[in-house]
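Students often ask why inverse folding is considered easier than folding. One informal answer: many sequences map to the same fold, so there is more than one right answer. In these notes we will look at a single instance of the problem. The structure comes first.
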């Protein structure tokens, strides 16, 4: 399913996978496969709501119809765009961290192909959101983005990730997060457009600051070191 094999689980099996994934992800936050499994086994109602919103949105409906994928073969042209564009900013974000858009784990635990695509889309646009909100990929940045994702999709996994992430903060990081990042992320996630209904690939050539204004996105606050 979306690059992997569908696995059917009953409710008890879903609960077991969810608990095991949550424990494993807390022990090793680098395990993207466990975080993905947690999101799928706890997030079906949230993904169903996102699917309905996408069906009601003209642009979201086009995304569902054409099912674009954020993989190298479909987004590599971003590296050739002018510096001021959204696509070029995304390319810089990925290149500076040596990230590949092909590294996302497949969706395995969704009941239908349509829900599987929504779950995969949410996973693949994560780096677009990093770019748009100007968030780093450190613990503070990832935790802040999970708050935005929760405000946008109400995925339990996002809330659990923030709880798990904040337990690993130093005292100084915790103060910075709750003083600056947390209130900004809550407000930003609520005030911006429905980000799951955006056909990002069609806006690669547009000016980064212009798309931020159009979508109501306020970049992360600059924190003095």
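Output (designed amino acids):
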């Amino acid at each position: 399913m979306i690059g992997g094999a569908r696995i059917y689980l009953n409710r008890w099996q879903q609960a077991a996978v969810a608990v095991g994934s949550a424990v494993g992800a807390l022990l090793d936050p680098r395990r993207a496969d466990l975080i993905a499994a947690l999101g799928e086994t706890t997030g079906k109602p949230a993904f169903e709501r996102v699917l309905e919103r996408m069906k009601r949105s003209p642009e979201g409906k086009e995304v569902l119809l054409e099912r674009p994928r954020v993989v190298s073969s479909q987004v590599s042209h971003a590296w050739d765009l002018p510096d001021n564009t959204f696509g070029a900013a995304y390319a810089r974000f990925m290149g500076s961290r040596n990230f590949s858009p092909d590294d996302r784990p497949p969706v395995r635990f969704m009941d239908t192909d349509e829900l599987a695509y929504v779950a995969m889309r949410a996973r693949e646009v994560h780096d677009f959101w990093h770019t748009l909100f100007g968030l780093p990929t450190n613990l503070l940045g990832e935790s802040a983005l999970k708050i935005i994702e929760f405000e946008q999709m109400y995925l339990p996994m996002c809330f659990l990730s923030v709880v798990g992430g904040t337990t690993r903060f130093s005292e100084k990081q915790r103060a910075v997060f709750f003083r600056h990042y947390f209130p900004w992320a809550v407000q930003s996630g609520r005030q911006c457009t429905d980000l799951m209904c955006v056909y990002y690939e069609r806006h690669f050539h547009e000016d980064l600051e212009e798309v931020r204004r159009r979508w109501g996105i306020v970049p992360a606050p600059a924190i003095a070191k």
